[in-house]
Design goal:
heterodimer, A: alpha/beta, Aspartate Aminotransferase, domain 1, Aspartate Aminotransferase, domain 2, 2 domains, 19 strands, B: alpha+beta, 5 helices
């Protein structure tokens, strides 16, 4: 049993080990100890991240790259160290493949804007029915006025991609196949390497939305093989306002920047400019510097725990929560039963998800409610929204039980 | 944490109107219909009005929405029935909250105001 394995093994020790590193978890909400089950929206931050950013501002802050003074050199060094840490963490081949962005949405938009300029009538962008709005709307903007179309891979069964349909939809018209690594609603883990291989056979580029995968799974860009991979720092114990776009070097090289500004140039005239080298070519303007320092600390924290262990802990929590909630009459749980990411979405008869979230908040339990920025997927589920519990390294089996107990005692209606 | 000891999540008025709304349903012969969604949560409310000689003779609502939003829509429909167009257009969040006898947190105020903005569209 998952629970037994979790109790005997590493899973119970992980939250016991990490919990005291997250100061916010000491607070109470509505008179109860906070049970934070909304890490898929944004994770909490360990003291190491908070202190690293404060230390940076207290000792080393200046603008990066062109400041010929000590602080500028220190800031630049810290900024570029963060890039190397990210490269190593996700198994990228080179640091020039790591572009800092404002977040996952921004990372996807950088690609969509650049490729959008090259789309021709008849071209297609392939997405899936489980995408976050962040991996839909940038593509909708990209195809607009270019005669290109968006197509989407439907879902089957418990909420997995219809691979046969994907094969039919991937054609020589497909320019990009953009899909989530892990669904932010269903927890479905998509077979990235397999999807990438199928797309490549048709000559399509692949972009993977990794926002819900990077905080939870060991990653290796080489093994996944995708052309682009996007994620956010704030969902992986790091700060808000920072994201990463990974791109395979030859693909990034071919990407004509759609955004201009300082930092991304070599030489500028009033009417033209030449581009800087990768990755700076895709980083116009002053970047979020302290945030990259925080991301370095977050990565070091996760690496110390070990991503295999993180994965095992969170998978055990998610599967256990699925089992507990499924056993409650009137509760419907969405997504795969066993192999899943660190999110569990559910619906309760007679209860709107917002009212569920409000009732749980009264017990000090923070869950997310609504469409989770995945309205096409909500339509597939046949609901307006769901309630969603999501987990990180600091959550415990006891918290999953508290959630289930609170849900079970809600009653028939608000 | 038993269900017996926990204070009610919402006011009696909100709970009553969520469980047994009085103005939910279709309005045959409606002269004005409007619909909108709350972008935060995807809730959808539709209001149907019958306006005769500048007076709202009947109002009904439909939609997928939470308890607060449903109760608000129910109250809005009740408050405007029999009122002139001008009086109906003047209904605001304060009027709804006083009927619901509820303090609503800022994060849920959109749930209260969605039916009011849908009403404004229907009256426009």
């Amino acid at each position: 049993m998952t629970l037994d394995r979790a109790r005997d093994g590493a899973a119970t020790t992980l939250d016991a080990q990490t919990r005291r590193d997250f100061p916010i978890l000491d607070r109470t909400v509505n008179g109860r100890r906070l049970v934070y089950l909304d890490s898929a929206a944004s994770s909490q931050k360990p003291r190491a991240v908070i202190e690293a950013m404060a230390r940076y501002y207290e000792t080393s802050h200046a603008n990066v790259h062109r400041s010929i003074h000590t602080l500028g050199e220190e800031a630049t060094e810290l900024y570029e160290i963060a890039r190397e840490r990210v490269q190593r963490f996700i198994g990228a081949a080179g640091r020039e493949e790591i572009v800092f962005t404002r977040g996952t949405t921004d990372a996807i938009s950088i690609v969509a804007e650049a490729i959008g300029r090259t789309l021709k009538a008849g071209d297609e962008i392939l997405v899936t029915d489980m995408e976050h709005h962040s991996n839909l709307v940038p593509w909708q903007v990209a195809v607009r006025d270019r005669g290109a179309k968006i197509r989407s891979v439907p879902l089957i069964g418990e909420g997995t991609l219809d691979l046969a349909a994907a094969d039919r939809l991937l054609t020589d018209r497909t320019r990009v196949f953009a899909f989530a690594h892990v669904s932010n609603v269903l927890g479905t883990i998509n077979p990235v390497a397999e999807l990438v291989a199928r797309a490549r056979r048709m000559g399509a580029l692949t972009l993977v939305d990794g926002a819900q995968a990077v905080p939870h799974l060991p990653l290796d860009m080489f093994a996944l093989g995708c052309d682009f991979y996007a994620f956010s720092a704030h969902k992986m114990l790091g700060p808000t306002g920072l994201g990463v776009l990974y791109g395979r070097r030859p693909v990034l090289e071919a990407l004509e920047p759609a955004r201009g500004g300082s930092e991304m140039i070599k030489e500028v005239w009033v009417d033209r400019a030449t581009w800087n080298d990768l990755p700076w070519r895709l980083e116009p303007g002053t970047p979020p510097i302290a945030e990259t320092v925080g991301l370095t600390a977050a990565i070091e924290y996760l690496e110390k725990l070990g991503m295999e262990r993180v994965r095992e802990h969170e998978q055990a929590l998610a599967v256990h929560t699925v089992e507990l909630l499924s056993a409650i009459p009137g509760v419907r749980v969405f997504g795969p039963r066993r192999e899943r990411g660190a999110v569990v979405s559910f619906a309760i008869d007679g209860w709107h998800p917002h009212d569920v979230a409000a009732a749980l908040d009264a017990e000090g339990i923070a869950v997310r409610a609504g469409h989770h920025c995945a309205q096409p997927l909500m339509r597939w589920c046949g609901v307006v929204g769901t309630s969603r519990a999501s987990f990180s390294v600091y959550n415990s089996l006891e918290e999953a039980a508290l959630l289930a107990h609170a849900v079970a005692s809600l009653g028939g209606a608000p | 944490m038993s269900g017996l000891t926990r204070p009610a999540l919402y006011s009696d008025a909100i709970r009553e109107r969520w469980r047994r709304p009085r103005f939910r349903g279709e309005l045959p012969g409606a002269t004005a219909t409007a619909e909108d969604v709350n972008p935060l949560c995807g809730d959808r409310v539709r209001m149907q009005l019958k306006v005769d000689d500048g007076r709202v003779s009947a109002a009904r609502f439909a939609g997928d929405s939470c308890a607060i939003c449903t109760a608000s829509a129910d109250v809005v429909a009740e408050l405007i029935e029999g009122r002139s167009r001008v009086e109906a257009a003047a209904v605001g969040a304060g009027d709804v909250l006083s009927v619901l006898q509820a303090d609503v947190r800022p994060t849920r105020m959109r749930c209260v105001t969605l039916p009011i903005s849908v009403l404004a569209k229907a009256l426009a």
